[in-house]
């Protein structure tokens, strides 16, 4: 059985949307070597990236066109199997992409029951929240950045109640902290 992992970049006040420019995915000119190494370990453990249409389109429009990617994310996104949940997308326009129709939770269940590496959900607020609500998430990898923006989409909307078991806490030179949790039933 596969593990379903939510990996998110968050502000210190829990905002996951990137509006306001608080997050620079390529962070050119900044020493990210420790963060890149951890991300490579996570990427090597995953063989499916599951995202919503908005996240998919922003990734597709950015990463394949980035020159001199020192993060390894562009290479990872090129090779990983991408599943995009969308009722409107017809031609994904990116290799190794499957468009998912129908209830997202059913697709997550099917992926989880299969064999292989981790299935990673990133970005995609509604998809991540639905997977959490349905009890389908095994692990959270939260990269918390030292900024508070006050408003925006949160991973845990009001009323969300889940139990977490700490697995890891680690700081990085760029100033963010990885908080890894196992989601308890």
UniProtKB/TrEMBL annotation:
Alphabetized PANTHER family for the sequence: 2,5-DIAMINO-6-RIBOSYLAMINO-4(3H)-PYRIMIDINONE 5'-PHOSPHATE REDUCTASE (PTHR38011:SF11), DIHYDROFOLATE REDUCTASE FAMILY PROTEIN (AFU_ORTHOLOGUE AFUA_8G06820) (PTHR38011)
Organism: Pseudonocardia humida
Domain Bacterial bifunctional deaminase-reductase C-terminal: from-to ranges: 3-173
UniProt-recorded name of the protein: Dihydrofolate reductase family protein
Alphabetical list of SUPFAM superfamilies matching this protein: Dihydrofolate reductase-like
């Amino acid at each position: 059985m596969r593990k379903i992992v939510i990996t998110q970049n968050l502000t210190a006040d829990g905002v996951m949307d990137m509006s306001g420019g608080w997050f620079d995915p390529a962070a050119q000119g900044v020493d990210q070597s420790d963060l890149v190494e951890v991300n490579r370990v996570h990427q090597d453990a995953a063989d499916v990236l599951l995202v919503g249409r908005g996240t998919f389109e922003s990734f597709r429009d950015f990463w394949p066109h980035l020159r001199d990617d020192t993060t390894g994310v562009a290479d990872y996104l090129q090779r990983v199997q991408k599943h995009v949940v969308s009722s409107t997308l017809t031609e994904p326009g990116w290799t190794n992409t499957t468009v998912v129709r129908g209830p997202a939770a059913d697709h997550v269940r099917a992926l989880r029951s299969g064999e292989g590496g981790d299935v990673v959900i990133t970005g995609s607020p509604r998809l991540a929240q639905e997977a959490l609500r349905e009890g389908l998430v095994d692990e959270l990898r939260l990269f918390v950045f030292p900024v508070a923006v006050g408003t925006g989409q949160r991973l845990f909307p009001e009323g969300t109640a889940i139990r977490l078991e700490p697995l890891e806490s680690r700081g990085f030179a760029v100033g963010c902290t990885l908080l890894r949790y196992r989601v308890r039933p």
